[in-house]
Amino acid sequence: MPYVNIRVTKEGVTAEQKLALIEGVTDLLSRVLNKNPATTFVIIDEVEMDNWGLNGESTTSRRKREAAGAA
Predict the structure, then answer these.
(1) Active-site positions, per UniProt (predicted)?
(2) CB-based burial of residue 42 (10 Å sphere; 0-12 exposed, 13-18 middle, 19+ buried)?
(3) SS3 of 2-71
(4) What is the value of pTM for the model shown?
(5) pLDDT for the residue 69
(6) For a designed S-S bond to 49, which of 27, 28, 60, 71 qualifies (C-beta 3.0 to 4.6 A apart)?
(7) Whole domain around residue 52: which residue ranges?
(8) Does residue 3 contact residue 43 with C-beta atoms inside 8 Å?
């Protein structure tokens, strides 16, 4: 009974994109590990950008800095 947890920043991931992730991960586990899709759980967590950080900086700050640099 595989359990897969996908975490993404909350930036407008669509229902269609989430479904594609769920289907793709389920298919991958079925093909590679011969796992039963009926018992494969895929959970998608959307994390607020202020709660996701990299290299000592929140994603919100990174996006603002990168946008300012691109302008």
Answers:
(1) 2
(2) middle
(3) CEEEEEEECCCCCHHHHHHHHHHHHHHHHHHHCCCHHHCEEEEEEECHHHCEECCEEHHHHHHHHHHHHC
(4) 0.84
(5) 85
(6) 60
(7) 3-70
(8) yes
Residue written as token pair 């994390």: 47
**Is pLDDT at 6 greater than 80 in this prediction?**
yes
For the chain, the domain total comes to 1
Query: If you search the block for the tokens 């900086």, which residue do you land on?
Result: 57
pLDDT digits over 10-37, tens only? 999 999 999 999 999 999 999 999 999 9
Q: Domain of 32: which CATH number?
A: 3.30.429.10
Residues labelled as active-site residues: 2
Contact status, residue 8 vs residue 46, Cβ threshold 8 Å? yes
Higher-pLDDT residue of 69 and 2 is 2
